[in-house]
């Protein structure tokens, strides 16, 4: 006999939209975002919090969504890669990643972008060392991280310039 998993009703605020879900209590935020909300930008890499491909912002802070139970995100605000662009205009980080050639296969890119956004929201002009430290939990098998770091630096400079 298979024992069924308890379910719970939750509300997620994702990229400015409200989603009311009934999910198993053991459902990860990653699974809820991909399977229940239908946002495929957040990737499952390792499933153990080691690669950063599943990074989203939870109340503005980067988290590995594969390690967060969706029920703990009830009522909280989540930003996924789909929420970075506004009004068909790419976020400055997305622009800089393209301009600096920081995107190769693209699998790690959503997590890199959201980790970088979390950093720039806290520290608008980080040093190279601070950028590297912030990105340390995000693995990329295609690049040597040089272009990614340059893209974050460029985005920080562009964002500072647009703030005046």
Q: What tags apply to this protein structure?
A:
164 residues; five-stranded mixed β-sheet; alpha+beta; 34% helix
Entry summary:
Helix content is 34%, strand content 16%. By secondary structure, it is of the alpha+beta class. α2 (92-99) crosses α5 (146-163).
How would you characterize this protein structure?
It is a single chain. The protein has about 160 residues and is α+β, with helices and mostly antiparallel strands. It is globular, with a radius of gyration of 16 Å. The protein is about 35% helix and about 15% strand. Strands 2-1-5-3-4 form a five-stranded mixed β-sheet, sandwiched between helices. The chain contains five helices and five strands.
Topology:
Elements (H helix, E strand, L loop, with lengths): L6 E8 L2 E8 L4 H9 L17 E4 L2 E4 L12 E3 L12 H8 L9 H14 L5 H7 L11 H18 L1
Parallel strand pairs: 1-5
Antiparallel strand pairs: 1-2, 3-4, 3-5
Distance between the termini: 65 Å
Order of helix and strand elements from N to C terminus: EEHEEEHHHH
Radius of gyration: 16 Å
As residue ranges, the low-confidence spans are none
Helix content: 25-40%
- Could you say which structural class the secondary elements and strand pairing correspond to? alpha+beta
Number of strands: 5
Coarse morphology = globular
Largest beta sheet: strand ordering:
2-1-5-3-4
Count of individual helical segments: 5
Proportion in β-strands = 15-25%
State the major sheet. 5 strands, mixed
Roughly what is the average pLDDT, rounded to an integer? Answer: 96
């Amino acid at each position: 006999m298979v024992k069924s998993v308890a379910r719970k009703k939750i509300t997620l605020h994702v990229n400015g939209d409200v989603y009311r879900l009934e999910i198993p209590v053991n459902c990860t935020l990653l699974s809820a975002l991909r399977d229940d909300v239908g946002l495929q930008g957040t990737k499952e890499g390792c499933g153990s919090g080691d690669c950063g491909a599943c990074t989203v912002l939870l109340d503005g802070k980067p988290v590995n969504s594969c390690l967060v139970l969706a029920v703990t995100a009830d009522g909280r605000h989540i930003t996924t890669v789909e929420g970075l662009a506004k009004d068909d205009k790419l976020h400055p980080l997305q622009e800089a990643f393209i301009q600096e050639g920081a995107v190769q296969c693209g699998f790690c890119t959503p997590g890199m972008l959201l980790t970088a956004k979390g950093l720039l929201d806290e520290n608008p002009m980080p040093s190279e060392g601070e950028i590297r430290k912030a990105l340390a939990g995000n693995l990329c098998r295609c690049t040597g991280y040089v272009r990614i770091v340059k893209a974050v630096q460029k985005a920080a400079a562009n964002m500072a310039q647009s703030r005046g």
